[in-house]
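WARN retry 2 of 3 for item q-0093 after timeout on previous attempt; input resubmitted unchanged.
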Amino acid sequence: MRSKKIFDMAVRATLLASVCFGAVLAVTAQREMAISAIQGNSNMSPVAGERVSTQGIVTGLHRTGFFIQTPDEKADNDPLTSEGIFVFTRTEPPKEAAIGNLVSITGMVEEYRPRNETNTLPLTEVSMQAGRDSVKVISRGNALPKPVELSIKDLESNKIDQLERYEGMRVYVAAMTVVAATGGRVDIATSRSTTNGVFFGVLKGTPRPFREPGLDIFDIAFLNNAGKEQLQKDFPNLPIFDGNPQKIRVESLGQTGSTVIEAAANTEIADLTGVLHYAFRNFTLLVDADSKHKQSSTIKPVPMPEPKAGQISVASINLENFFDDHDDPKIKEPIASKEAFAGRLKKISLAFRDVLTMPDIIGVAEAENLAALKRLADEVNRDAVSSGKPDPKYEAFLEDGNDGRGIDNGFLVKTTKLKVIEVKQFGKDEKYKHPKTGENVHLNDRPPLMIRVVTKNTGGDFGLTLFSNHLKSFLGYNDPNQQDNVRMKKRLQAEYLAKIVQERQKGDPKERIIVLGDFNAYQFNDGILDLMGIVTGKPAAKDAVFNFSPDIVDPDLINLVDVIDQSQRYSYTFDGNAQVIDHLLISVTLRDHISGFGYARVNADYPDSYRNNTDRPERFSDHDAAVAYFSMTPIR
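OK item q-0093 returned
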């Protein structure tokens, strides 16, 4: 969906910052009400804070409660009021709350939102208190209410609360396209992933959602009118990202007794039924335990092209927690078991050889140390020979930085083709004053690492200067207790890198420079910071971004993601949105040499559970690799 200005993104008038969603009034009387009357026709229940009793058929069980819905023949037929609601019991539901039972319940109406998330829609629920409230069975074995079929029309208003009218109700999706694969939790010590059953989808025919320029709508939707007016006055050209409310979060394990759905991106799922919940800023489908859905076959990685004669290929990849099986006493790092690390080496080697097709230079992030990276180089070399391919003779280069866990930037260089003439780390001792504590702290946890190479087979007349980077993550970016420091650090890191690049461009205007890595930033202004604009020399204007930086780089760098098809502009998925945080930038001196660019689709689109199979390359990381091709002779 396209970005919109602040005042085009209004949600219902009940969503004001002054409302305290969690507040309840302690009263002893209880009102008997229909579920639709409790839900009301807006985001907030008209009886929030009151004790009520109501009736409904149990439609779904959750680990902390259950869902009830009005029988079809008693529905009020108001399209703005939901007929379902979540009953919060804190623990597993009582035996009386069996699927199909018509029950009577009592409890307090509350508008729930997590304590650590103030900018989110509330979830209307009836909260039961042990020893005071009860569940009484009226009848058993009732047919469940007919699910509402979700259609594209239900999602066309593009408002973050557009599915509120179905909250807590049974819904049906005739056909869904997965846009973010099933996730999981990784144990670094064993390199094993445990699925969480959560993926994102859109109704079939809906374009894939991408992160777009601007401040997230959730960061302004709950401001009062004065706050919005002030924001528009101070930042009249601030872009706003609508959050892509057309996407649906799916919890395949959300209902008790459910079976996990492992799905890759672009998979189609038909006949999906469940209860519509709300969690993590997304309307969430909790799939029925007896789901009879159908799932299409999964995608497979497509190998990147091998470089042609006269070309050099350059890749950039975040290896994600590449920790070895040795304890380094200098740092506090996770330690992988010998079996786990051997499995990771095997899996990454397979991906480098068969999907990335052994690039001539690979910039890496999140490698523990030089020894671990050398072991990876040795594994790839050995596996290449054993599979009948030429020995690339990769050599590893890495300098330790300041990261508390010890993850660093490095390079693998194919020495059969290239000669390394210099390796240099920048900014390890650079410090800045922490805005809260006032102490001087390291600016670069993972300092930029430069490597200079020349080709061997052309007499060393074609050289490249590359910078491998891994900038501060988004962790704490919107946390009131951390955001001042996080935002300052990200901006200062970007400015520091921009100054390094500019100094080299001024020192040698003919130098061919590549700046690559995990920048933890989009290719555009996110409203808070325009990090990539700083590094490339095209920063956002003062009235369009909270944290402004001056233009440092001239001539500007070229971000290769801007020259590929829009459908391929992603290296990572988060919250259901495809997004680029891994970039490959080039100086204008390489503009006439670039002959190809893209992302090796081997990680971001695949279920996290694929990590557990070391015989296949998919999901050795959560990032896709950026791969570029350069002709040693100008092609324009």
